[in-house]
Design goal:
The chain is α/β, with parallel strands linked by helices. The protein is 32% helix and 28% strand. Bound molecules: adenosine-5'-diphosphate.
Length: 229
């Protein structure tokens, strides 16, 4: 808790601005975004395609830099970390579920989910137990021996979510994590994430165009033309 009794800020963006330059002219992907995400919040950022959702997620995760303003993790500016420190931070604390999954197609589903645990030097028996548990929760427990290239897009999406959750991160940042799932499955996955929020105090920042996923307990923000409200 902070001194005012509110949960501590985990991630903060202050006047975060990001411009992309292209032959067709500059695009203002983020336009002075202010955001404070507190520990244990379930934040849903809703916006149409092109509104800046992926850019926001990438700068919050330290995968991309801002042109103006700053992004902080636990009050330390991400720009003060080295690349290696930011990579370690993402392995340990800030797990990202990418829209494109970023899975290794020729490796098994098991190896893909296990990978961050190997990097964290988790012992083998514990890795096995944790991978099986999260896979069962995501209804992919019987797919673990298959290669990624042999499972459906919806199943890959669940594998990518499992890989982000298996390390028990402090914060999960998700980019359209249910884009390949039907609405029933999408709601079930969001329900699993909210249970983790409540039971483990985990913090979630989900960006999506799909407002039907929102529950009354979520903190909902709207992004439009790079501006958050
Ligand atoms: P969303 O995730 O909401 O679809 P993005 O963050 O991907 O939005 O993009 C925001 C704006 O920035 C869009 O106009 C997009 O075309 C532009 N943009 C994103 N990435 C690049 C890039 N690498 N180069 C040029 N423009 C980009």
């Amino acid at each position: 808790m902070a001194s005012d009794g509110a949960p501590v800020p985990v991630l903060e963006a202050r006047r975060a601005t990001k411009r992309y330059r292209s032959a067709a002219g500059d695009v203002m992907a983020l336009s002075g975004v202010d955001l404070v995400v507190r520990q244990g919040e379930f934040v849903v950022v809703i916006g149409p395609s092109g509104s800046g959702k992926s850019t926001l997620l990438n700068v919050l995760a330290g995968l991309d830099t801002v042109d103006e303003g700053k992004v902080y993790y636990r009050s330390r500016a991400l720009s003060d970390y080295s690349d290696a420190q930011r990579t370690r931070l993402r392995r340990r604390a800030l797990s990202v579920v990418f829209q494109s999954f970023e899975l290794a197609p020729l490796m098994s589903c098991y190896r893909n989910i296990e990978f961050p645990l190997l990097l964290a030097h988790v012992p083998r028996a514990e890795r096995r137990r944790r991978v099986q548990r999260i896979a069962d929760q995501l209804l992919i427990g019987d797919l673990l021996g298959r290669r990624i290239s042999a499972v459906s897009m919806g199943q890959r999406q669940r594998i990518a979510i499992a890989r982000a959750l298996v390390v028990k991160p402090e914060v999960v940042l998700g980019d359209e994590i249910t884009a390949s799932l039907d609405s029933h499955s999408s709601r079930r996955i969001y329900a699993l994430l909210r249970r983790q929020q409540r039971s483990a105090g985990r913090t979630f920042v989900m960006v999506t165009h799909d407002s039907s996923l929102v529950e009354p307990t979520d903190r909902v923000l709207h992004l439009r033309d790079g501006t958050l409200r």
